[in-house]
Description:
33% of the residues lie in helices and 16% in strands. It has eleven helices and 13 strands. Helix 3 runs parallel beside helix 4. The two termini are 18 Å apart. Residues 16, 42, 107-108, 137, 219-220, 248, 250, 264-265 line the site of (4S)-2,6-dioxohexahydropyrimidine-4-carboxylic acid.
Amino acid sequence: MSQSLTIRRPDDWHLHLRDGAMLRAVLPETSRDFARAIIMPNLVPPVVTGAEAAAYRDRILAALPAGDAFTPLMTLYLTEDTDADDLAAAHASGLITAVKLYPAGATTNSASGVQDFDRVRPVLERMAEIGCPLCVHGEVTDPAVDIFDREAVFIERVLDPIRRATPGLRVVMEHITTSNGVDYVLAGDDTLGATITTHHLVINRNHILVGGIKPHYYCLPVAKREEHRLALRRAATSGKSRFFLGTDSAPHTDALKENSCGCAGCFTATNTMSILAQVFEQDNALDQLEAFTSLNGPAFYGLPANDAMITLTKGAPADYPSKLDTTDGPVTLFDPGYALHWRAS
Length: 345
Ligand code: DOR
Ligand code: ZN
């Protein structure tokens, strides 16, 4: 007998759409299932000003398939030269929903990120005043810190001091990958939330490294030990309001992934809702899926949940292609390693 579940249409609170041909190829994969997404600003060059965010939003809307109802929620890329007045105007007009903090050098296209956190303090204070959330890539870049410890060290050395120095600043810890991240969110107040990706609910670091290196499982922050994956599963399936879906779907062509210096990023836009339904079913938590994908995010951002609904139906294995074709080259879909039985409609 087929089983089905109807929930509010989901949103993706952390998404990379890129630009040009890649944007045109990947946007329909998100707009098929999702109503809104927080759009990451790490283009080359990055989206730093309100004018650049407006132009990028227009390019996204121009690439949207006719008939898809999808709203891109734009962000600015925080630099040490960010103009607080420009940011405040972009926020007041509704053009941007949040600002993204990348520590310089932490990940893909983060070279223009922040090196000296004291230099952005006035901008963060302004954001606290106007109620503009800060989305944080939470990893230190200190070469002395082991890559698997970079999130935990960031919380201690950077995030907690920023939050103490800037009371009222709303912060989203993006793509948490550790029990340290989960515990920090749980210990915080309602100015603190966290996104969790689809892939970090499925893989641990063995998936990347055991039996040969798997470039399509490599992303940043890198997947950690199994105990951390289980902590993320408990958080996501708990229904607790401060955890919500941010896929961090990050397309790179196979040529760039299957490379002696492969890019970080898992492309999950296409099959995310199928994977999540299965993950929540495995954990006997299908009744919490809607909170994670469709209710907690809007509540944190002070937006209404979507009126439209989506139905997930369980049946024969869904036949997703293994790759998405783009004119830049193929992009491999994230493979959870098991057949997917849920599909969205
Ligand atoms: O794996 C990742 N890919 N992590 C990031 O933080 C950036 C992203 C990308 O832009 O490719
Ligand atoms: Zn990202």
